[in-house]
Fold RNase H type-1 domain-containing protein.
Amino acid sequence: MRKSNTIVEETWWKVSQAHTVKINFDATYNKKESKSSSGITIRNGYVKVLHSKVSLHENIPTSFAAKVVACLQAVELGFFVNLPMVEIEGDSLTVIRKMKGDREDKSEIRPCITDIRSMSKRFEKCVFKHALRQENKSTHILATKGLKRREEFYLSNAIPGYAEQSVEINERMLGFPVTG
């Protein structure tokens, strides 16, 4: 049996370690329509956005399930772009804690939790971290606008203009020169 390389941490947003990229995720949920939208950003250690993605989902039973689906999408995107070491951050503390993997999950979203735990072991290193809403702002904006506009996209080395300001604010908070 392979030793688990998945770690759960709660911390303020900060620059990731060398060779590790940050994958941030968030979801917005429409209870009336049972639909959600996932927003995901991947950034390098210098806060530069490497990838951004918005996906729409149907038949989502709860806002909690929407957050778990967004986390699953974040892990899948990390594989898609072939990242060996990742820090996966979301603002749902409950979702982040479920990733620890010590106990079998018995909730309605067990299949997603199981998939995330299994997939996270395939990374060379995978750390799940809780991010405060303000620190996860760009992904929140992506998810909210995606659901409102009913749009999906995947961008490489870019983020939509409506989310650029939140990225620039993070850069300034961390002391990086803003290049926009």
Remarks:
- Confidence is low (pLDDT under 50) at residues 9-13.
